[in-house]
C-alpha cells in the first residue's frame, strides 16, 4: 500500500476517540450490547494495527451484520422506528472500524460520523446536547485532519488545534446560512414517531385508575409575556377540553365528531385588556397547544377549535414557538346551540347514581346555575376532602360515587370529574378542561416555566349571560395548590417529585442551585426562541423586518447577498494572504507582446525563454520577423543586460509593442 | 573577442578525439571554468576517460590519474609519510591528489572510505594527512567518472558527495555519423594516446575566471532562478529539491556559460542550458514519480515560467 493511502497511527487514535464520543449522547438510549460492539471493534482494530489479528473475512462480517440485525430485533421488537434505526446505524458505524484499511475507508467512516452526529438531534435539541455535538464535530474533523498528516506515528494533539480553528472559521458561514439561507421544505418525510413515552397530559382522563400519580420535573413549555406577568392563580393553561364521558373516561371531541356548522367557534365578546405572549413548547407528539383563555394566534398552521382552544393539524414533533393573544375576560359562547347544550349535559345513564342524586337535590334548592356551582364548591370546602397525589384506587363501577361519599381523597382529576358530573346532573352545561396551572417565574429573564408537574384539570360551566366560566373545584379543596403551587400543597405529604431524586427542582431551597437552575433555564429559553424556534416563518419575519415587503427579487438578492457576505471576506483574506507578484512594467509590456502574437496563433510556452520564443514566432510569422526580433532584443536588453538608460528604452519598447498589430 | 575564439578552439581540439559531442565538451569546459568538479557518468567504453584526458591536455594542466578499485585506500590517493633512514625523519610522499587535475576513474567502484578521502580535497582545496594540512595546487580539478549505479560492484556516491560535483554529464552513444567517422579513422591505435595541444593557457584561464566574476545577473533573471528553485521544493514530484548551494551552482555555471557565449549578462537560456548537468544529480524524485532526475529537469524547464511569476 502506498504511503498516502495508509491511515497514520495518529489518525487511527483520533478516529477511535471520535467514535466513542459520538456514541456518548446516545448512551442512554441504545441497548448495552451496542456499546460492547464499540469496545470490541476498537480492540479488534487496535490488534489489527499491532499485527496480532487480521481484518475479518467476509463470512465473519456477514455474521456480524446478521447478529446486529437480530440484536436490534430482539431489543426493540422491531426494525422500524427511530430508536431501532439509530441503534442499527450506531452498530454499523462501529463495525465499519473493522473495514478500516485504507484512507478511503476512513473517509467513509468519518463522513458517516458527521451524519451520526445529526441523528442526536432527532431526539433532543437541548443546549448541552448541541454543545456536545459541536465537540463531536471538532473531534471528527480532527480525525480528518490527522488523516492528512501521513507519517505521524506518535499521538499528537496538533490536529485538534487545527480542527478547532477550522470549525471556528466555519462559524460565520454557519450563522449566515442559518439565518438567511431559505428553509426549503423536505421533499419527503419519514414519520419519526419516537417510541419514547412522553410524560405529561394525555388525551384521556380516567380518575381513579391510578393510585400513584408520577409527575416529572420536565419542562412542558415556557412563556414570555410582552407585559407584566399575570398572577399565578390566574394562569390556567388550557390544553384539551373534554366534553365526553364514556366508561368513566373523559375525552375530547375530535374535529370530525363536531357537526360541520358547529366547528367554527362563536365570536366572543372582547372585553378587557388582551395579554400578548409567546410560548415555546416541548414536543408532545400530540396536536393541541396551550394557551390562556380566550386565545388567538395569527401564526400559520394554528387553528381555533369550537371549544376555544388552539390546535395544530400536524403532530408537534419538535420544539414549537408560537405567539398568542388572549382576552381573559372575554365572554365565550353567549348563546349555546342545541347540539352543544346536549353534548355538555350528556351523562352515561345509570352511572354514579348517588352523585347524581345529590346533584339533583342541590339543584332543586337552587335558583340559578351560579347557586348550584357555589353549593357544590361549598360542599368540597366544608366536607373533609383531601388533596393528595396518592389517592386510593376507585372501583370500576360508579367510581365517582365511591370518591364523593367514601374515600374523599384525590387530586385535580377527581375533583374536576366529579364536579362536572354533578353540574351536568343538575342541568348545568359543564365540561372538564385539562392543561397546566400556574408555572414558575424565572426572575432572570421574566419567563414563566411550566413543568410537567403543573399539569392540572379543572371545569368550565356555562352560565346564562356569562358564557363559559372557569370553576376550579381543586381550589376549593386545596387553595394552596392554586395559590402557591404543587410543592406547597403537598408539603405535608412529601410526594413532590418523589420519583425524580436528581431533579434540581427538588433542591430549590438551596439558593445557589436554584439560581444556577434558573440561569440555565433562561439560557435554554433564549436558545429555543432563537435557534430551535427559528423556522421558515420566523426567518421570513426577520427578513421582512430587514428588507420590507418581500418579493422574489429581494429573495434572490438576499440569497446572493448572504453568499457574498461570506465569500467576499473569504476572498479578501485569500487575496491578501496571497503572495503578491506584481508584474513590472517591463514584463507587462512583454506579456502584451506575447498576447498579440497569441492572437496570431503563436503561444508562448511557460518554460520558453524570450529568444527561443522569438525564433519560433519568427519562423511561424515570417512577415513580422523583424518586429519580433526588435521587441525581443529590447526586452532582453532591459530584462537581463541591466542597461543604464532604462526609462528611454522602456518607452521605445512600449512603442515597438504598440506598433505591432 | 579572443577568449571566445580560444574557447571555440579548445572545444574543437577536444572534438577531434570525442566526435560529435560538442554540447558535452562545452559543458565540461564550463564546469572547469566555473572552478567546479566534474562527474562523468556513463557505461564503460563511451569515452569518459577520453574526455577527461582531453580536457587536461587542452587546459595544459598537470594531471594524475587514479583508477579507483575496491581495495584502494585513502593513503593511496592522499599520500603517505615514509621513514627516511638517512636523516631519521619521516618525509611525506604526496599522493596523486597533489596535481592540478585529478582523473578519478570509476570513482564508485571504491569503498565509501576512500571516496570520502576525496571530500576535503574537493571541498576545500587542501588535504590533511597525519594531522598536517597541505594545500593543493591551484587550480585543482577533479574529473571523476563513474559507471551507472545499478551496475554490479559499485558503491553509489552519497548525496552529500554528489553535491560536491558541480556538474554531472552523461555522454551517451555517439551520433551514427560521428561513430561511422570514428570507425573509418581509428586503426587499432589503442594504448598509444596522442596528447592534444594545449589551447588554453593558465593566463587565459585566469582571464576567463575574471570575466565570469563580471557577469551581470539581473533581477528578472534571479526571479526566474528563484522560481526554478522554489518549484523543486514545492512540487510533489520532488523528494529533495535544490539546496541553496545547488542554486548558487546554477548561477555560477550560467555566468560561465554566458562568458563562453561572449555575453556580459546571463539570459534565461544560459540557465536552461546548464540546468540538466547542474541540477540532474541534485534532484531526487519522490516515491510516486516514475521519472528520474533527467525527467525532473525536463518537468522543471517546461513548467516554470520564464517571465510570469
From TrEMBL, chain A:
Keyword Ligase in annotation: no
Residues that span the membrane, as ranges: 7-24, 30-48, 60-76, 82-99, 106-123, 129-148, 160-181, 555-576
UniProt domain Transglutaminase-like: residue ranges: 404-475
Keyword DNA-binding: no
UniProt entry keywords in alphabetical sequence: Membrane, Transmembrane, Transmembrane helix
Name under which the protein is recorded: DUF3488 domain-containing protein
Gene source species: Pseudohalioglobus lutimaris
From TrEMBL, chain B:
Pfam families hit by this protein: AAA_3, AAA_lid_2
Gene Ontology molecular function: ATP binding; ATP hydrolysis activity
CDD domains named in the record: AAA
Keyword annotations of the record: ATP-binding, Nucleotide-binding
Domain ATPase AAA-3: 37-167
ChlI/MoxR AAA lid domain boundaries: 232-286
Family note: Belongs to the MoxR family.
Protein name, per record: AAA family ATPase
